[in-house]
Amino acid sequence: MTALVTVGATVLATPYASAAPVGVHAPDLPEAGQEAPDGERSPDRAERPSPDPTAVGPASSVGIRLLDAPVERRADSRARRYIVDHVHPGTTIKRRIVVQNTSEVRRAIAVYAAAADVTTEGFSFAADRTENELSSWIHVDDGKLQLDADQETELLVTIAVPAKAEQRERYAVIWAEVSGDGGQTVRNVGRVGIRVYLSVGPGGEPVSGFEIGRLTGSRMPDGTPVVTADVRNTGKRALDLAGELRLRDGPGGLTAGPIRAEAQTLALGGTTTVRVVLDPRLPDGPWTGKLDLASGWTKRDTSGTLTFGAAPAAVSDTSDRSDRSGQVLTGGLVASGLVLVLLVAYAYRRRTRHPVPA
After folding, report:
1. Distance in angstroms (rounded) separating the CA atoms of residues 132 and 121
2. Confidence band, pLDDT 50/70/90 cuts, at residue 189
3. Residue 27 in domain
4. Cis peptide, bond prior to residue 286, ω within 30 of zero
5. Are residues 216 and 194 in the same domain?
């Protein structure tokens, strides 16, 4: 029997106005650990609209958090936010979650599992209640809730893996959803969820690993310095990368950081670029940079010398001056040509009015 430890903090979501069905393919959002360390908000793939100003009644919201994780994963930061595990075929695991109604009125809240995947675009949520193999194995006790204002309840999530399940990693999300009417054609819908990363196979857990490429410094068109590094997933599990960049030995002994660095979920064999945007006032360098990244308990780092180059503002000003010079030159040529034409016309008219005697 697996021993569990208590983890997690509640993540909240407020319903948004949507003319489409709830949960239309959601994007990767800023990783938890900032405002929402245990769940995912799910707006439409398109830009999230403002709440419907004509909605009837107070705005409603829902919170969810993971209550426990395996003791052997207590050092794995991902396991405190998501359900992350490796099990043998035929295994059943259970996790407790807490769902909370943070609105001012009694609300109906649906809790259910739905499909997800990890692609080149990151962790991808399926639309509405779309099912996949993993979500079909997940059962939420009492998934239809009626909660009073500020009431929370604990639910048990059971994942029963079939004995003949194939060896590979699978993905899903456990959603808590609340909705209300905001008019005849608009629904206010909000849902938050907990990701599930479940590896299935015999033996021990597949190895997680990644490689960080060379650090590169450059400037964006507006002169803002940025540090980039390519990262490749060399292991057998998807990765959620986050970490910090530090700069030292800068001009005059300056230092900078730590500055947070993160990237989208990285699929098996996938590659992504980590970008860290810095303060525009940062000198060109040289600097010694060190980037530390981790996905759970898998950690890597890389160091290197960085320079950002001269700010492009001077180049832009020179270009502008060249453009203006060209405009003045062109204008002058046109004006000269116009004067010449007028002089010729004037001479011709005088000649026709006052012919020269033969």
Report:
1. 19
2. low
3. yes
4. yes
5. no
